[in-house]
Amino acid sequence: MASLIDRMIRASKLDVGLYEEVEADKGSMGQAATIVVLSSIAAGVGSLGVFGLEGLIFTTIGALIGWLIWAYLTFIIGTKLLPEPGTKADFSEMLRTIGFSSSPGVLRVLGVIPVAGPIISFVAGIWMLVAMIIAVRQALDYKSTWRAVGVCLIGFIIYFIIMYFILTIIGINPAQVPTS
Known about the structure:
Blueprint: H1 4-12, H2 16-24, H3 29-46, H4 48-81, H5 91-100, H6 116-139, H7 145-169
């Protein structure tokens, strides 16, 4: 199995071959989960000045739950609503590829830097989105990047609505939640 750091670098470089590799490597689930945890801890550390220790804990737990929900939504949307003729995937492939797309998120630890921190966090978020589109395209064996964009967009809207209602039900103001 390839090293975690090497794979994170390749994922961050948007290496299509890496996403194909982890899609096929059933043993890489632990690495994918580790990346999601590292990325969410980095986001929490980067927002410590704003959200404190509670934000760090909430961000980390929320990111893991969010990863599962997001992967499931993209899997269902991509395989049932918007499949291409060659689409074939299983849920664990989606979990692995989306997990690796969180690799650029480790840069969000730099969010603690005054002035530059929020810009770095924003850029890392966009970078993660681009990586996710590639991850989804590869996991679903799409030929069209635009179809992967559509799956991610639809998934994001549904995910946002679900998370908004969950947070509201448990008594948390969604506007005050740190993003992961």
